[in-house]
Amino acid sequence: MLVAENVFFYALAAVMAIGAVRVVTTNNVVHAALYLVVVLAGGAGQFLLLGQEFVAWVQVIVYIGAVLVLFLFGIMLTRAPMRADEPLNNDLRALALLPTALLAVVLSIVLIDQFDDTKLGLTEPIRTSEVTRSIFRQYLVPFELVGVLLLGALIGAVVLARRD
Hints:
Layout: H1 4-25, H2 29-49, H3 53-77, H4 93-115, H5 128-138, H6 140-161
Helix pairs in contact: 1-2, 2-3, 3-6
């Protein structure tokens, strides 16, 4: 039966898969970061389909709004070349398919074996108040440390980009 949620799920999954492939195949660093925006926005859309609005908006604000902007600032402040001087393609792609396929088979077998008949006992979604209580009480120090780390990375990019 074709349900609207399934249609949206498969559409988002297809867009995310195409974006993920383009992240690693494009020669332009800025384009790769923008394709990453597509993948992360698709992840937020998947969370919305699951009824987890808080996690979806955290995904948008933190990953798209902060981390990706930090990537773009780092790229532009360090004056990295926007396009590769030589093509990034080589003859090792065919050789890389073998371990990739092997890993996909092993992961599929493990996941099917572990979660074959498991039913999720979700009666209601996790409330935003529970998540915020957890972040600002139990995980306050790691939360602040990540913010300081990102600030330090941005300051480091500015220092490296300066010409004295």
